[in-house]
Design brief:
By secondary structure, this protein is α/β, with parallel strands linked by helices. The chain is built from 8 helices and 6 strands; from the N terminus they run αββααβαβααββαα. The structure holds uracil.
């Protein structure tokens, strides 16, 4: 059975299922439209997110806002979440047991939102959702469909901040996302 949003948020707020809870200021459950057709999944909170309890509010977040705007949407229209809800120390990638402990929350969020399209931002999101054998450099830009949900792996906005040459491929990936949302909407019975 699906949990409700209030129960889920409460569980995340009190969670002590892995070591990351010890270092957190605030957990970062995620935010946005609970009925979003499009969801973005990042890696985990950084310093700014830990301080505010909100996902993607630092420099990478500002870039993510621009990416969302570039396909004609706003932050409020989509849902933004992370693989882990608490900040890993020194912004390291979350470890396998931390991801495993936190995944039920992300699965519950996806189950409540039921988005049509999910953008996987970077290798942690790709690995956590689709499995450890997947590689972002090899698979970005190619649709993967699972149980009626369309996944688009692309580079994490923090990677774009480090390497400008990733901007063009990410833009190409986002155009595919925009087109897929239009295509899916056109297929809906009352479109
Ligand atoms: N990077 C992420 O993966 N998630 C955030 O919320 C912020 C930065």
């Amino acid at each position: 059975m699906l949990v409700s949003w209030p129960t889920l948020t409460e569980e995340i707020t009190r969670c002590q299922k892995c070591r990351l809870c010890a270092g957190r200021t605030y957990p970062v459950p995620g935010e946005g439209n609970p009925h979003a057709r499009l969801m973005f999944i990042g890696e985990g909170p950084g310093r700014d997110e830990d301080q505010t309890g909100r996902p993607f509010v630092g420099r990478a977040g500002q870039l993510l806002d621009k990416m969302i705007g570039a396909i004609g949407l706003s932050r409020e229209e989509v849902f933004i979440a992370n693989v882990v809800k608490c900040r890993p120390p020194q912004n390291r990638a979350p470890e396998a047991d931390e991801v495993a402990a936190c995944m039920p929350y992300l699965r519950a969020q996806v189950g409540l939102i039921r988005p049509q399209v999910i953008v996987l931002l970077g290798s942690s999101a790709l690995g956590a959702i689709l499995g450890p054998d997947h590689r972002i450099t090899r698979e970005r830009g190619a649709w993967i469909e699972r149980k009626g949900v369309w996944f688009m792996p692309t580079f994490h906005p923090a990677a774009l901040l480090r390497d400008e040459s990733k901007k063009r491929p990410v833009w190409e990936d986002l155009k595919k996302v925009r087109d897929k949302l239009q295509e899916l909407q056109a297929d809906e019975p009352n479109a």
